[in-house]
Amino acid sequence: MNSLNISFPLERNDVVSLLQHFNISPTRQRIEIAEFLFQRPQHLSAEKILDGVTEAGNRVSRATVYNTMGLFTNKGVVREVLIDRERVFYDSNTDAHQHLYNVDTGELTDIYDTEVDKIVIPNLPEGLKVVDTDVVFKVASE
Amino acid sequence: MNSLNISFPLERNDVVSLLQHFNISPTRQRIEIAEFLFQRPQHLSAEKILDGVTEAGNRVSRATVYNTMGLFTNKGVVREVLIDRERVFYDSNTDAHQHLYNVDTGELTDIYDTEVDKIVIPNLPEGLKVVDTDVVFKVASE
DNA sequence: CTGCTTGCAAAGGCTTTGCAGAACA
DNA sequence: TGTTCTGCAAAGCCTTTGCAAGCAG
User: Fold this and answer.
1) B121: which chain A residues are within 8 Å (Cβ-Cβ)?
2) Domain encompassing residue A112
3) Is the pLDDT assigned to residue B126 strictly greater than 70?
4) One domain, residues A86 and A109
5) Same domain, yes or no: B58 and B81
6) For residue B3, what pLDDT is reported?
7) Would you tell me how many other CB atoms lie within 10 Å of the CB of residue A6?
8) Who wins on pLDDT, B116 or A29?
9) How many whole angstroms separate alpha carbon A121 and alpha carbon B100?
10) What integer pLDDT is reported at residue A3 of this predicted model?
11) pLDDT in the model for residue B95
């Protein structure tokens, strides 16, 4: 999925390149948000992103966080993960991978299972192509 | 996932049995909601469920629809599908199956792919078990 | 009776929007 | 100087909650 091979954490220069690669003009706010996102592979809500950017000493409005994350998602910079109905999570890891969601703790972790790539959809109608595959394994304590 | 082998549409008597099977006392409202859900395999939002039940000539409040769908989900009568960030969908088909989501049209369809059942999670921590597997293929026009 | 259910209205909480000012090319 | 972007505040919208009345066992 991700042909960019991001090596976390991303330096500021790399962040700017990344944004430009996706045809996003690198404004101060977008750079600061992206820098925070790509410190490491992580799953973050809009609120957490706002908090994180703010704690890093930068000032970005809530509306801009929402606008920016919508933009990043559309452009493919990050991936939306819908698991918790309470809020959307943004995944800074866009490599092909799946998720393990612990229903007891709410913890969301990445897993890599090459078998998933081999899945072929039976009877995929003509003229359609798969643009993304979301796989979430919900796990609980035994 | 579903060992009940529901044959759509479900008759009123079967609906009552179904609810009892899940230890849900069959109140008028719950029966009417379940009857609407199990007319056919479908993916419905709370609003659509309220509309449908109302149009069928029954009277149920919005709050009861939400309460009931929460109950049905917890008991395993239906499955929540989180795809659209706008709202939650409830799936009246609880057989093991996957979803095809057309990002252009918003259409959500069921697919059956036995290969998915074979997926084994690498490094699943001890003491955890998989309780559910959500697979969504996002497709678009070529 | 006693506890479970329902329904209304209000509150809650995440997200979007309108619009004026700022930044940018 | 025209376009894009930001930020504030308000609005929007889905969902939950408090609470009184109704219903079931």
Assistant:
1) 100, 111, 113, 137
2) 98-139
3) yes
4) no
5) yes
6) 55
7) 15
8) A29
9) 9
10) 56
11) 86
User: Which residue in chain A is spatially nearest to B141 when comparing CA positions?
Assistant: A128
Q: Residue B127 pLDDT > 50, yes or no?
A: yes
Residue nearest to nucleotide D24 (CA to C1'): B27
Q: Please state whether strand C lies within 7 Å of residue A1 at its CB atom.
A: no
DSSP line for B93-142 = --SS-EEEEETTT--EEEE--GGGGG---TTPPTTEEEEEEEEEEEEEE-
Closest-CA residue of B relative to A119 is B115
Q: Is the pLDDT of residue A65 over 50?
A: yes
B chain contacts of residue A108, beta-carbon cutoff 8 Å: none
**Number of folded domains that form chain B:** 2
Half-sphere exposure of A101 (CA within 13 A, CB side): 18
| Residue A99, token pair as written in the block | 């998720």
SS3 B68: helix
Identity of the residue numbered B125: P
> Please, which residues bridge with residue A136 across strands?
A99, B134
pLDDT digits (tens, 9 = 90+) for A76-122: 999 999 987 777 899 999 888 899 988 888 888 898 876 777 777 77
pTM (two decimals)? 0.89
**What is the DSSP code (8-state) at residue B10?**
P
Q: Are residues A86 and A36 in the same domain?
A: yes
Question: Do B22 and B43 belong together in one domain?
Answer: yes
